[in-house]
Structures are given as structure tokens and as C-alpha cells.
What does this fold into?
Amino acid sequence: MEKQFAPEAADDLWQAVSRLLRAQLGDATYRTWLAGVQALDLHNGVLRLSVPHQVARQRIETCLVSGRAQRVHVGGRA
It folds into this structure.
């Protein structure tokens, strides 16, 4: 059964994850790669994110996601 959560749930989850990542990565790294990231939605346990540019997307996918989440989709802004 598919579960779609309210946008506020995605925002709340991203804020919690964002705080943890900031603590782990430090302010400079967080500001460089994650400051412009926004939650789009939360669907079937997958938090979908919007990133400000392709370079940030690639960096997040290759360096920050591996080992931190089992299912992640990172997309660019529409």
C-alpha cells in the first residue's frame, strides 16, 4: 500500500536529518553542499529532495548519501 505524507512531514523529516548532517559534517561543508536543499515530498518511506544545482546533486549522491541512507532520491529543482 502506497503512503503519501503531507508536505509538512517531508519538511520535518528533512529538518531533523539536516541537523544531524550539519553536526556530522561541520558548518562549512553543510553550507557548501546542503544549505539550499529542500524537501519535496515523502512517499513510501522515501524522502525526495530538491537541490540548487547539478554539482551539489552529484556531490550529495556520491559522497554524502552512501552509508547514510538505504533509499534516497535526489532531484534538481523544476
The longest helix spans residues 7-25. The mean pLDDT is 80.
